[in-house]
Amino acid sequence: MSFSPCACGIDVHAHVVPEHFPAYLGRTVPNPWPSTTAAPDSNGLCHRHVMVNGKNYRTVSEKSWSATRRIADLPEMGLEKQVISPMPELLSYWLPLNDAQPLIRFLNEYTAEICDKSEGKLLGLAAVPLQDMDTAVAELHYAVNQLGLAGVEIGSNINGTTIGDSRFDPFFAACVELDVPVFVHAIKPAGMDRLVGPAPLQQVLAYPTDVGLAAASVITGGLLIRYPKLRIAFSHGGGTLAMLLPRLQQGWTVFPALAESIPESPAELSKKMFFDTLVFDPAALKYLASIFGTQGLMLGTDYPFNFHERRPVERLVSAGFDPVTCDALTFGNARRFLGNSIF
Amino acid sequence: MSFSPCACGIDVHAHVVPEHFPAYLGRTVPNPWPSTTAAPDSNGLCHRHVMVNGKNYRTVSEKSWSATRRIADLPEMGLEKQVISPMPELLSYWLPLNDAQPLIRFLNEYTAEICDKSEGKLLGLAAVPLQDMDTAVAELHYAVNQLGLAGVEIGSNINGTTIGDSRFDPFFAACVELDVPVFVHAIKPAGMDRLVGPAPLQQVLAYPTDVGLAAASVITGGLLIRYPKLRIAFSHGGGTLAMLLPRLQQGWTVFPALAESIPESPAELSKKMFFDTLVFDPAALKYLASIFGTQGLMLGTDYPFNFHERRPVERLVSAGFDPVTCDALTFGNARRFLGNSIF
Asked: Which of A92, B184, B214, B332 lies deepest, with the highest CB count within 10 Å?
């Protein structure tokens, strides 16, 4: 069967990696400041190794930094627009603030520049140094108001503290004030000591585990009760949350301590959150819809990394959603998440 | 609607707690050796506090130790038989071996005694001290051959090492040799530092997280390739595995390192494992069936703890399984898991 996508999709989960990084000018040695080095061409594409702590963290292609290359790939994936956010390993929460600040500023300007060249096809998410609330809020203002970025990407935890912790409230308050969406991506995940097998299991198993716990912490920590206007989305279909939620819902009816600390039902709260559709399986996608409803599901691909969804719209169609729901998942929900005003 | 259950179900996930523990005779102080103290009666039932490290770990009712009370509750739950295993906090992997050994022997004899009084309605699972392979294997032989226990319960990790680690191979080899099933229960879970909220979140969120990672480790560690005859089941519907598996399956086709280290597809391997149905939600139950197939799903209740499934057979019926599948999930698969020879 040949598939002719509508090319009207909005991909909320795609990443940018700069071709070059500025040289490190700080004083902390050793330091996980990233750099890139030349890598062999492959499939007619220029590649670079992203070096962190003297090791090759990941080899990425020019699709990671070239607006032209990226835009050329959109139609085949059924996409009209793509939201690009920094490769999470660049979020730099683990750097000293004095180092993180210039690196994150560089990333935000780099992302904005790619978007500026895209004639509206690419929208950028900012990074902010969440190791310090004041600096994070200031950078968010700069990224949105000066650079025109459309929202912000954050990690599922900040140096091990999950995002449902109330210490991050000033940041979320600023997101609401600026009316910008938050995209939560798995990073430096819990559960690494439970993996048996090769390195990619971090991405494959621990990433969805951490993002699931982060999403659960947003529910149990009451974030959406304190900030009901917050628009927050989770990568990888919310990770493991879809399996945790029915048990959390039941536990909420059984344990007085849970009922007391979560004034709205977990199931209802989950319906106020957004999730990408990056689960690689029609049954899993249908299950997300049955657990979370369809009003918060949006296309996500993890483009341009190796482990990305190459046919995101076909994946939706194969799950058997009706046309109205397909449209909502393909672009409608993403517009609401990103803010209709930017369309 | 009044529901008249067939009372033919087999519950593979229920727990036993002794009314009294032997006094600690070892030399390590302080020591997490458990004890019980009197608790107020409630609902006409005698209760005891289970004390660990000087704190009340959990207050449990006489249903935890009384065969009579337990058997009286079976028909209302639609159960003919129940498999009882120690409350996981009693598994004692964290005790010095010299302490764990007599405590586990006491538990196994206690469990066997309850079963012996039950006229075949209760089947017991042993505990074994997995902090030492030789002792664990010896205890398994004793529990099965001398005490007549039907199988063994193990934690999802042993002092932080997940069960897919090959260091536990001698134990699994003994399970195959003795032709007894293994029931994996969440314990001392990963992800505790990602929780925001009251203490029950350990059971509610971190338990299914840890058992999901344990089940994934069995797949990625190749346990069922080394021991194809092993019958192994996971508590809480396999926890988060059902959301991890499609991503693992996709990753297996993308990352050469995963394809090289896992010779059969993760999806196929998952179909050789067993899972209880303790997910409290018809959509989640249907999803387990669509991801794992129905051939390995078996009733589980967590009886008699507060957070248990009170109507397990009705839950299956409400998920809309056809009658043949309902029978398989209600008792057929459990018979195969437990070993048809004991029926």
From this structure: B214
On whether any CB of chain A is under 8 Å from the CB of B261, the answer is yes
B53 touches chain A (CB under 8 A): no
Strand partners, B157: B162
Cis peptide before A129 (omega within 30 of 0): no
Angstrom distance (rounded) from CA A145 to CA A142: 5
pLDDT value of residue A89: 95
**Rounded mean pLDDT for each run of 10 residues along chain A, 343 residues in total:** 67 97 85 92 93 92 96 96 97 95 98 96 98 98 97 98 98 98 98 97 98 98 98 98 98 96 96 97 97 98 93 92 95 94 70
- C-alpha distance from residue B73 to each of A133, A213, A255, A295, B188 (Å): 54, 35, 22, 42, 29
Report the C-alpha gap between B130 and B138 in whole angstroms. 11
Cα-trace Rg, chain B = 19
Predicted confidence band of residue B1 (pLDDT cuts 50, 70, 90)? very low
Q: How many CB atoms lie within 10 A of CB B146?
A: 11
B19 touching A (Cβ < 8 Å): no
Spans of all domains in chain B? 9-342
pTM recorded for the entire structure: 0.96
Do residues B35 and B19 make contact, with C-beta atoms less than 8 angstroms apart?
no
- How big is the CA angle at A140 (ends A135 and A143), to the nearest 5 degrees? 120
Show which of residues 163-202 on chain A sit within 8 Å of chain B, judged by CB atoms.
Answer: 164-165, 190-191, 193-201
Looking at CATH, the fold of the domain delimited by A9-342 is given as TIM Barrel (3.20.20)
